[in-house]
Design brief:
single chain; alpha+beta; Jelly Rolls; six-stranded antiparallel beta sheet; three-stranded antiparallel beta sheet; 6 helices; globular
Length: about 220
């Protein structure tokens, strides 16, 4: 695996540490953390900062009603739900495999074995994932092909799982994350030697440029 050059912003990592990212964006960050020691350290620092702020707050007495509510939830759902999973260790995965956090959604550990669905856009296939909040898709851009020019209705995080692409933002390879705001307009083009497979999380639909792209957007569903 090549060295990771592009990471989520510090603001994104702090939001992840605080648990305030939409699930669609948090899934992408979580997958990136499996590969990136630098960002795992950033999240740990954010968690430590949050813990320090909590300690600095003046303690408030818990009402009897609130206490009973918490105990009732523990009885109904089990205490294990409130215990966080230990942070993953740095793992180098084969190019054809699926990050661990995605395996539960896909029930598959190989990118080539997934049920890719063609879209009307030339050279683009996708798999729509249901994470309960926001929009998450696996995108497969054929080698040498471009996505339509677009900007974003909100925030977008895209992590490269295989291959790579280039746009006006830079060159992105396996493990890299593009952390994009709504003001960024770009047109990713897959490398010429292999398909680019990426995980994209959005909290709002894409904004396509051009009448044809806008016309097919409801059909593509992006």
């Amino acid at each position: 695996m090549s060295q990771i050059e592009h990471h989520p912003t510090q603001e994104t990592l702090l939001s992840y540490a605080a648990g305030s990212l939409p699930a669609s964006l948090a899934l992408v960050v979580g997958c990136h953390l499996q590969y990136c020691q630098q960002c795992r350290s950033g999240v740990s620092a954010g968690e430590a900062l949050g813990a320090g702020l909590m300690v600095a707050l003046s303690p408030q007495a818990l009402s009897s009603r609130a206490r009973e509510s918490v105990l009732a939830r523990l009885d109904e759902q089990g205490a294990d739900e409130f215990i966080q999973e230990p942070k993953s260790v740095l793992v180098s995965r084969p190019q054809g495999s699926v990050p661990r956090l995605l395996q539960g959604l896909l029930q598959q550990d190989n990118l080539d074995a997934l049920p890719w669905k063609r879209t009307i856009a030339p050279g683009l296939k996708q798999i729509v994932l249901n994470c309960g909040e926001g929009d998450v898709r696996l995108l497969r851009i054929s080698a040498g092909k471009k996505m339509p020019v677009h900007s974003h209705g909100g925030s977008e995080l895209t992590m490269i799982l295989r291959g790579g692409y280039s746009d006006n933002v830079g060159k992105f390879n396996m493990g890299d994350v593009a952390d994009l705001e709504s003001s960024v307009e770009h047109q990713p083009m897959a490398d010429s030697d292999e398909d680019c497979i990426c995980l994209a999380g959005m909290d709002a639909p894409l904004v396509f440029k051009g009448w044809l792209a806008r016309l097919i957007q409801p059909i593509v569903g992006m």
